Fold:
Amino acid sequence: MISEKLQEAFNEQINKELYSEYLYLAMKVYFQEQNLQGFVNWFDVQVQEEHAHAMGMFDYLNERGGKIDLRAIEKPVVEGNTPLEIFEHVLRHEEYVTSRINHLMDVAEEVRDRAAMHLLDWYLKEQVEEESNVGGVLATLRLIGEDKHALLMLDRELAARTFVAPVIG
Ligand code: OFO
Structure:
């Protein structure tokens, strides 16, 4: 059985992962409007990853006999009007998510739930990867500046990203 405090923290995080899915879906809309199909694909993969992250916690809570409490998902607000500004927002958002997973880990430590800590280790590693992946695109966008041709080359590169269902835990 899982402690009530940890159960609450997991329910809160499930909501944040679903919000991430929703936020990236809103960003996908921006790139659809710009007709940058490689970026659209990148966000499509991101949306699926966030869904998998939420479901990983959902399934885990269920497996541990916890009570799942689905909450309202906030309306996503995309900050920025250029690909660069939007990726700056993505990085800020991922850093925020990392801080929330660290908080979840703190709660798991506090209630001495080693099984949950093991699961959360996976999420922390995933955050390192996410931040690094986003940071890479951001660095390229900074180099690109106003160069439209280079932006289209990056768009072509991002079209190659594919979703691989993660094995969580
Ligand atoms: Fe779920 O990792 Fe991004 O937010």
